[in-house]
Amino acid sequence: MQNQLLLLLLLSLTYSSLKAQEDLKSNQARWEEQLSENPDSDIDLYQWAERFSLFEENKKSLNFSDQEELLSLPYLDVFKVNNILQHIKHTGPILSPKELSSIKGIDSSIATLLLNDFNLKARDTKEKIYWPAVLKYGRHQVFLRSTTGLEKRAAYNSPPEDGGFIGSPQDYLIRYRFAYRDNLQAAFNLQKDAGEPWQQNGRNLGFDFFSGHFALRNYGIIEELIIGDYNVEFGQGLALWSSMSLGRSFSAVDIKRYGRGIVPYAGSDENRFYRGIASSLKWEKLRLELFLSHKKIDARLGSNLEGDSLFAESLGGNGLYRTLSELEKKDRNTLNSMGGRIEFRGSSIDIGLNYRYESLAIPLTTSTQLYQMKNFSGDNLKNLSLDWNYIYRSFNLFGELAFDGEKDIAYSWGFQTILLDNLRFSYHYRNLGLNYQSFWNAPFAAKGNAGEKGHYLGFDWQINRKLNYNCFFDQQEFRWISFSESSPSRGFDWQNNFNYHVDYKRDLSLRLSYREGKSAAFHQGSLALSTNQQFHLRLQLEDRRLRKLESKTTLQIKTVSLGDPARSEGFMVAQDFRHTLRNSKLKISYRFALVNSPNYASRMYSYERDLYLSFSIPAYYGESFRFFILGDWQVNEHLKVQTKYALSYFYDTESVSSGSNEIQGPVRSDIRAQIVLKL
Question: Between 426 and 181, whose confidence is greater?
Answer without folding.
Answer: 426
